[in-house]
Amino acid sequence: MSTINYLTQIHIEFGAIEKLSTECERIGIKQPLIVTDQGIKQAGILSQALLVLKDLPVIIFDQTPSNPTEAAAQEATKIYNQYQCDGLIALGGGSSIDCAKAVAILAAHPGPLKTYATIEGGSAKITNNTAPIIAIPTTSGTGSEVARGAIIILDDGRKVGFHSWFLMPKSAICDPLLTIGLPPRLTAATGMDAIAHCIETFMAAPFNPPADGIALDGLRRAWAHIEKATNQGQDRNARLQMMSASMQGAMAFQKGLGCVHSLSHSLGGINPKLHHGTLNAVFLPSVIRFNQDAQSVIEESRILRMAHAMGLSSAEDVIPAIVDLNQRLGLPSGLKEMGVNQELIPHIIQGAIKDHCHLMNPKIATTEDYELILLESM
After folding, report:
1. CA dist 181 to 159, 194, 226, 274, 304, Å?
2. N or C: which end of the chain has fewer CB within 10 A?
3. In whole angstroms, what is the distance from residue 289 CA to residue 259 CA?
4. Per-residue buried b or exposed e for 188-201, using 16+ beta carbons within 10 Å of the residue's own CB
5. At what angle do helices 276-291 and 259-270 cross, to 10 degrees?
6. What's the pLDDT score for residue 6?
């Protein structure tokens, strides 16, 4: 049985950040904690948000790491409670948004964060007391601004998911102008994250036709515009299309993801310095190859339908096209180039099998299957 739910309010347009003050008023946030990072502060984007908020009393936590951690969320929660904040503004990439979601849990629920992890059976323990969030993405990749989940590295080293409709931001303010200054390499990596979301959720096993349609359209937009957004970063239309594709990938992945993400989550927990979107780009060709003979993929011609969205003539063109795109974007050709060696394979597999995305793949990967995917991705 599939549950289909699209619940949040989305503002996507150039200059959408100007709606921040009115969205705080609409939601009832009178003293927000802004969760962001040093890069956003140095880029002047935090100053833009503060200018819009004017006289609203604002507290700032600007120490979100590149991969959000339980320790960072706990520190932000202390500040949230100390100043008696009543809501969160997540300003940044997926890391800041996911960190804010962890704060939203911790500020309203007792016990350690792992209590609420999906793989610990914690989703049902997350209640409507969760602090409200306004999410303002500054990258086009994770789509966390319209997602009910967050990925956090726990104090025990595991990179795990937290999922609840109470974590869905009350408002997503998607302003493509905030991505104009994103460096080419980060534009490429986050863009491939969006493409991976669209592709993997389209191949995922659950029945969800609306998600499939959104994913295919997001894939079409991202595939057509990622190179221009990367190489001509000032192109407003390319930035708009990539922000839409990112948002659409996350609107669709409530359906589920699969082995690309179970592997990326696991390896990202082992080495938090590895960029999630880059890992997805590297794993994507091998996982598509693994999935191509899954019954649901064959019966519904899913790879062919993806090929058409990508402007390709046949299903056989999809994998080499992704490999070629990664190369043109300047992304790594394999895990070895990222400093990952084969000695880590057993540890990566152990985490992947326990990941919440593992069972959503169109065919369930065994330890041996994961080993072959990892070796092929090296």
Report:
1. 29, 18, 15, 22, 35
2. N
3. 11
4. bbbbbbbbbbbbbb
5. 140
6. 64
CA 307 – CA 230 distance, rounded (Å): 22
**Residue-wise pLDDT tens digits, 100-147:** 999 999 999 998 999 999 989 999 999 999 999 999 999 999 899 999
What is the percentage of the chain residues whose pLDDT exceeds 90? 89
Averaged over 262-284, what is the pLDDT? 94
The mean pLDDT value for 272-293 works out to 95
Residue 168 · residue 147 · CB < 8 Å: yes
Model confidence pTM above 0.90? yes
Helices 209-231 & 184-203, crossing angle to 10 degrees?
160
Crossing angle (nearest 10°) for helices 236-252 and 209-231 = 150
What is the predicted pLDDT for the residue at 157?
87
Work out the number of other CB atoms within 10 angstroms of the CB of residue 296: 15
Cβ–Cβ < 8 Å for 317, 307: yes
